[in-house]
Design goal:
alpha+beta, 5-stranded antiparallel beta sheet, 4 helices, elongated
């Protein structure tokens, strides 16, 4: 009785692995002649493949003969029970043939992949018989298949480790597609969101188009980005402080206000999906008003597959229509079918707020950082300019913790800021201390039960000087442990920079260093982390306002 295909595949794997191991041991121990030892594993692998190919051909011939015999017997005069038995045997014979073909393909993949791993590059006839490693893809070159590591990774294509995204002497900065038939964009503000694994949405205010808002939709690939043409989303009006967030369903929500000074805030829903050719396409709806008397940039945080928290500065209105005191507000927005629902509006600060930043802490919780500006500073009161509040979605409401965090309560003039998750229950709070002319970072621990936020040690200095842009991104821990990543544009500097700090086991940020990541001074910038660990940045240079994007990999952040 012949061996079943799965059995001889297992035998081939054992024999081939044994050959490779024996060859490696011979080389390591220095036994035998060097010229023979170098080729021993590959030679043995070739011999095994030849033997198994001959076995496969003979087996197929026997299966063909068996099928012919079964068909001949079935065509003769036999009883119904005999006919049923022969039909069952024929079906089993066909199943064996299909299994043999499947195993043959696996055997060839095993052979070519192991041969490549042993150093015989350029022998696989197609990508169907070559198994590349993680973060790699197969390419055809001169009639042979080869594995190549994806962008931001380096190696032989079978084992790819994090590498620099920007090769030495080469800029990876690429221009976003421009508006068809119009003058180049002059971007004043930009914001990017990454969602649904590889979907990207970029929103910007374009001064060359009377400050209208534009949306770029794209898909992130191993080698770069695929973009859709930009679309206007503000219905001809200004779009000041545009921000965007995406959901796992592909839906997006854009928020902005319609005047550079004080205006009405609006929400625009949409969806990014692939067209018939697999290219990204965005569908957007008309703007929906959210609140009046808006003068601050908003922040958006996804909280579920269909819900988003919108953080903004609001003002109360008395029964006669007169404006009252300003306060920090959070709207719970739901995107269902073709409708944008405001499930409720909730207060997170009973004082005017500005420089709002927020990040998700979990699937239904977030932290919002802000500069609190009480109307009247009482004698003996402390500064609330570095505040943060914990918020959680519970059913159809947002529950706000009443114990707000207040960092550096003795200092004022705390301006730009960003927050980003470092690890479970720990986030980074990056900010500019204008009076000290320093960029700082504090790590904050959140108690999972009480939700109280506590600073871990003293703030660390990221860089000296003042900043025109300062934001933070959550980055993967990597082999060197947790890190924080803050990107900024220092006043007067000729390039954008990033401050990277190591987070010790105690939770404190330390060993901070700055690295340049953009070749030009930044007017505005926004960054997000992709699923594969790369960082995607979109920015406009301070001179022309042209929009660009680029990637940073794990290796770039370690340099």
């Amino acid at each position: 009785m012949a061996l079943r295909p799965t059995m001889w595949l297992w035998l081939l794997a054992q024999l081939a692995s044994g050959a490779a191991i024996r060859g490696a041991l011979l080389l390591r121990d220095g036994r035998g002649r060097l010229g023979e030892d170098v080729y021993y594993p590959v030679t043995e692998l070739d011999r095994l493949k030849t033997s198994m190919t001959m076995y496969e051909e003979n087996s197929k011939l026997r299966w063909a003969q068996d099928r012919a015999a079964l068909e001949s017997a079935a065509s003769g005069t036999v009883s119904e029970s005999d006919r049923a038995f022969l039909e069952k045997a024929a079906i089993s014979n066909e199943e064996d043939l299909q299994e043999a073909r499947s195993v043959e393909g696996k055997m060839l993949t095993f052979y070519h992949t192991l041969r490549t791993a042993l150093g015989s590059v350029g022998t696989a006839p197609s990508c169907q018989v070559l198994q590349c490693g993680e973060h790699a893809e197969c390419e055809m070159h001169n009639g042979f298949a080869a594995c190549k590591c994806s962008q931001c990774y380096q190696g032989d294509g079978l084992a790819c480790l994090p590498g620099p995204c920007v090769p030495a002497g080469h800029s990876a900065v690429l221009t976003l597609p421009g508006k068809t038939g119009e003058e180049p964009s002059d971007i004043a503000e930009v914001h990017v969101a990454v969602f649904a694994r590889d979907h990207v949405a970029v929103v910007a205010r374009d001064m060359s188009a009377e400050n209208q808002g534009f949306l770029w939709a794209g898909f992130a690939t191993a080698d770069g980005m695929v973009w859709d043409a930009p679309q206007a989303f503000s219905s001809g009006a200004e779009a000041v402080g545009p921000v965007v967030v995406g959901l796992s369903s592909g839906r997006i929500l854009i928020a902005y206000r319609d005047h550079t000074d004080v205006g009405i805030s609006h929400l625009v829903r949409g969806r990014v999906k692939a067209d018939a050719h697999g290219a990204p396409r965005a569908e957007i709806r008309s703007p929906v008003p959210l609140a009046k008397e808006q003068a601050q940039r908003m922040a958006l945080v996804p909280l579920s597959p269909s819900r988003i928290a919108c953080l903004f500065s609001a003002r109360s209105v008395n029964p006669s229509g007169e404006l009252g005191r300003a306060f920090g507000a959070a709207a719970l927005v739901e995107l269902v079918d073709e409708e944008t629902r405001i499930l409720g509006k909730f207060r997170f600060a009973d004082m005017p707020v500005e420089h709002i930043a927020a990040t998700a802490l979990g699937p239904t919780s977030l932290v919002v950082a802000f500069r609190g500006l009480p109307d009247i500073a009482q004698e003996g009161s402390t500064s609330k300019e570095l505040s943060a509040t914990w918020i959680e979605m519970l059913d159809d409401e947002l529950v706000v913790d009443t114990h707000a965090l207040e960092l550096e309560p003795d200092r004022q003039e705390m301006m730009g800021r960003g927050v980003a998750l470092i690890s479970q229950n720990v986030f980074a709070y990056s900010y500019e201390s204008s009076t000290e002319k320093q960029l700082k970072i504090a790590t904050i621990h959140v108690d999972p039960n009480t939700h109280r936020m506590t600073p871990v040690g003293e703030p660390a200095v990221i860089s000296q000087g003042s900043a025109e842009v300062i934001q933070a991104i959550s980055v993967p821990s990597g082999p060197l442990g947790p890190r924080s990543f803050t990107y900024f544009q220092k006043h007067g500097a000729k390039y954008g920079a990033a401050g990277i700090c190591r987070v010790a086991t105690s939770g404190r940020a330390q060993d901070c260093k700055s690295i340049p990541f953009a070749d030009a001074a930044l007017r505005t910038a926004s960054g997000e982390r992709l699923m594969d660990g790369r960082l995607l940045f979109v920015y406009a240079d301070a001179g022309s306002g042209r929009p660009y994007y680029q990637f940073l990999g794990a290796q770039d952040m370690l340099q």
